[in-house]
Amino acid sequence: MLLDVPLIPDKNYIRFLNVHRTRIYSVHFSLYQADVLDARYKLRLISTDALAGCLKGVPTVLKYLLLNSRIHNPAGYSDKDTLAAIMNTLAQLNDAGLLDGIIYADAYFLQALSDTTPDIARKLEAVPSINCMLDSFEKIRATFDILSSMHFKPPQKIILYRGLNRRPEALSGIAAKCRENYTAIKLGLLANEGCIYQCPYKPAHDALLAIANMNMDVNTHDINQSLGCIRYFLEKPQAIFKSPFIRPEDMQNYEGIVDIIKICGQTLGRDFLERTIQAYAEQRYKGNLLDLMDSLDWMSDEFHVENGLAPPGFF
Q: Is 221 within the bounds of a domain?
């Protein structure tokens, strides 16, 4: 299986990716522009030319831009100038061979982009975010039906919702139906988010992140700590074992079912990403499993889960 990994604008990290290039199917990345939202906080802003230079550093892998904010300011759906500016930036990257598609979560926004510049949309795949929660074939079929009414190309890959990670029978059934109906599709799973299983906070959490990125006064960390998943895990740290993460050693259980393992952790920096990608590329890791988990990384200072001590049959 190949990996889908974050790309961040760091020359040393890009050199690291090239060392593991044969294990990488695709990279996903932010546009790093203040008015173009994705599902993460923007820790920095860079120019499109600087981003293009980073993308040129990984020439042989597919490249997907994150436009996966859960919601947008509704006024933006009809702001043709801003929508056209976004699409023209995507065209600039696509014309340079540096962009294959976009990852979306807000279908209203996707439709608005499609309507604004159909000629550009036809050059790009529209890939549903994992936050679209595709955990049944019915949802997948409905998603493809909607996409077929837009100008974007259909996706070459989809990342199935993490609730399927530990449900092999359901996963196998969905994978079989996908391959029967969408013969060219690549299927993937997210390995290392590490959040609550079937997290009831997630829809609101995604929306709050989007609101925060619209420059509204929202501190999602404080909310999670006082009311949400951080509080939950501090009160019940044993619940981390219910989280549907995939250990590096357990990737073999998905051979023949999915094609791609996605790694997340874009905002945690180069050291985290290199450690995590190395572990999944080698399919082994000795150390604290929490050091590989995106949403649980904060727990690694207080809790140690020795990955090498996982009992047989842990999966």
A: no
* Banded model confidence at residue 41, pLDDT cuts 50, 70, 90: confident
Q: How many helices (H) and strands (E) does the chain have?
A: 11, 8
Q: What is the pTM of this model?
A: 0.95
The helix (H) or strand (E) run that includes residue 63 is strand 62-67
Tokens 């090239």 sit at which residue?
A: 18
Q: Range of 34's domain?
A: 2-199+244-309
Contacts of 308 (CB under 8 A, 6+ apart): 286, 287
Number of independent structural domains in the chain: 1
- What's 93's domain CATH number? 3.20.20.70
Q: Is the Cβ–Cβ distance between 232 and 197 less than 8 Å? A: no
The Cα 296–Cα 238 span in angstroms is: 12
Q: Which residue is it, tokens 């996908």?
A: 178
pLDDT for 4 beyond 90: yes
